[in-house]
Amino acid sequence: MNEQDKLFAMRHSGAHILAAAVTELYPGVKLGVGPVIDDGFFYDLALQHPITEEDLVALEAKMREIIARDDAFRREEMPIDRAIAFFKDAGQDFKVELLKDLMEKGTTKIRPEESQDVEVGATSASVYHTGQFVDLCRGPHVSTSSEVGDAFKLTKVSGAYWRGDEKNPQMQRVYGVLFASKRELDAYLTMMEEAKKRDHRKLGAVLGLFAYSPLVGPGLPLFTPKGASMRRALEEFVWSLNRRYGYERVWIPHLAKADLYKTSGHWDKFQDDIFHVTSKKTDDLFVLKPMNCPHHAQIYASAPRSYRDLPVRFAENTTVYRDENTGQLAGLTRVRCITQDDAHIFCTPEQVREEVMNVAKVIDRFYAVFGMPLTIRLSTHDPERPENYLGNTDLWKQAEDSLAGLLKEMGKDYEVGVGEAAFYGPKIDYMATDAIGRKWQLATAQLDFNQPERFELEYVDADGAKKRPVMVHRAILGSIERFLGVAIEHYAGAFPMWLAPVQVRLSSVGKDHVTHAGRLGEALSAAGIRIEIDDSDEKVGKKVRNAALMKIPWTIVVGGKEVEGGDLQVKVFGSEEALVIPQKDLVARVLDAAKMPA
């Protein structure tokens, strides 16, 4: 067992120990599921008396007591009918429901993030004994509870619906983090304390970037003029990089017939996550588009193509919609409307190499500007779960070997993520590391041999034969909403000038100086600079402090000397020294400081 697998087993065992501790402290608790997640685990619980944040201390102490007992983890294969009777007698209704689904349907139908690892044969399921505690689980686990170690901490309690469905009972979800050493745990907790200070939901409200409305609905953020200006800046930067590699802009509607996604294969895999739309004018079933690739495939199919036309590169910033669980929504990083800087390349097999390499160049350049180092994961299919993917094994091997070879040729180190592929093909996922060390999966390049086949896409080759193109899916910042959430926390709200929602604030000293501040503002605004004028009655010192609280890059105080034509004193956020700029040079200097990265 390698270190990563060992850590997974420790975290999985930590979830069981958490459940065991809850059952000892709260008799009668009903247990849901307790999977491993990034950095730790959680367990969903239904109790008569809810657990509070203050209760976590006692719960964690009980976990340490169980660990000190060194209880053995013992696996047992139990016939499903006996397992149902066992958990029914124990009053564990949620476990009984899971087992009945396994017996009757062959699946628990729990979404991936909610998934309980249950292994089932034709007539049996696996359970694990930990001392007196028994849970439905396929493992893996450590041998004894002491192997979980002491580098863990329970972090928070939140609400969650059973199986992610708001029609089901509401439960409590207790989260924990667990690491291989105390040093790693301490580093993580320090990082999380810093993350609280940078929380994009709080900073977004303070800086006035976006809002939510109960009338609009959860997971549907509303962007203010300031937030919208940041979105446009990001879109323009990505497009400036795309343009160099021959991308062409397209536009597609936000609705489509369900037939489009049935043909593409998305319907069978994701229909539970798709918003359905009904019409009074037609019997056709429509949906809010969850993906853009089938639309782009139809643009490709709308005209005959020759090998001389390829590659064709379609790009756009457009919003897709996913019916996410309410309990999983989180600020901008998990929303129901996802604006993608999406692009799809249709090319010959021989052109795949150059196209994917060019995508890598764009991704490298984009994240270098933000100072976010990248690591790479080659996401492959899981050969033990072929039902999760389209296409045959030979096609998958060809595609995965192709991407692995490209990464090697580019000199890129990478890890392999078995089972992390898209259902239609393998992908190269780029993880960006932010200022406090967290990794975010944002950019991606994906190979797709399946949709061209399902949509019967063609081009005429040099020999006159009709052939299938390869489809390359590509995103640079991924979701604009998610990237903005990451960027807010990465910069702690102190954005580089080209991205800042307000680039310059002009603060008048008194009423006699408002007119001149307005003239300077008009000149900057006419040049495309995002400005604000503070002509309030506040003292100038408070105006400067307010600008600093809003993390505005440049603040210029306009008083009597400036009205008479004197040089401007520019207070630069984060710097103790002021810039001195002649008024005639102001527009040029600001444009230079605020220009978009090349």
Automatic annotation (TrEMBL):
User: Which residues are noted in the entry as Zn(2+)-binding?
Assistant: 293, 344, 473
- Give the species: Candidatus Uhrbacteria bacterium RIFCSPHIGHO2_01_FULL_63_20
Q: Which domain of life is it from?
A: Bacteria
Kindly state which keywords UniProt assigns to this record, in alphabetical order. Aminoacyl-tRNA synthetase, ATP-binding, Cytoplasm, Ligase, Metal-binding, Nucleotide-binding, Protein biosynthesis, RNA-binding, tRNA-binding, Zinc
Supply the InterPro entries for this chain. aa-tRNA-synt_IIb (IPR002314), aa-tRNA-synth_II (IPR006195), aa-tRNA-synth_II/BPL/LPL (IPR045864), Anticodon-bd (IPR004154), Anticodon-bd_dom_sf (IPR036621), Thr-tRNA-ligase_IIa (IPR002320), Thr/Ala-tRNA-synth_IIc_edit (IPR018163), ThrRS_anticodon (IPR047246)
Per the UniProt entry, the Enzyme Commission number(s) are 6.1.1.3
**GO MF term set:** ATP binding; metal ion binding; threonine-tRNA ligase activity; tRNA binding
Listed name of the protein: Threonine--tRNA ligase
Q: Give the matching HAMAP family.
A: Thr_tRNA_synth
> Taking the first listed entry, what is the main subcellular location of this protein, grouped into a coarse class?
cytoplasm
Q: Where, per UniProt, does this protein localize?
A: Cytoplasm
- CDD domains assigned to the protein according to its UniProt record, in alphabetical order: ThrRS_anticodon, ThrRS_core
**Note describing how the cofactor binds:** Binds 1 zinc ion per subunit.
GO:BP terms for this protein? threonyl-tRNA aminoacylation
Q: Where is the Aminoacyl-transfer RNA synthetases class-II family profile domain?
A: 225-496
Return the similarity comment.
Belongs to the class-II aminoacyl-tRNA synthetase family.
GO CC terms on record?
cytoplasm
Tell me, how does this one assemble?
Homodimer.
- Give a single Pfam family match: tRNA_SAD
Catalytic reaction(s) noted? tRNA(Thr) + L-threonine + ATP = L-threonyl-tRNA(Thr) + AMP + diphosphate + H(+)
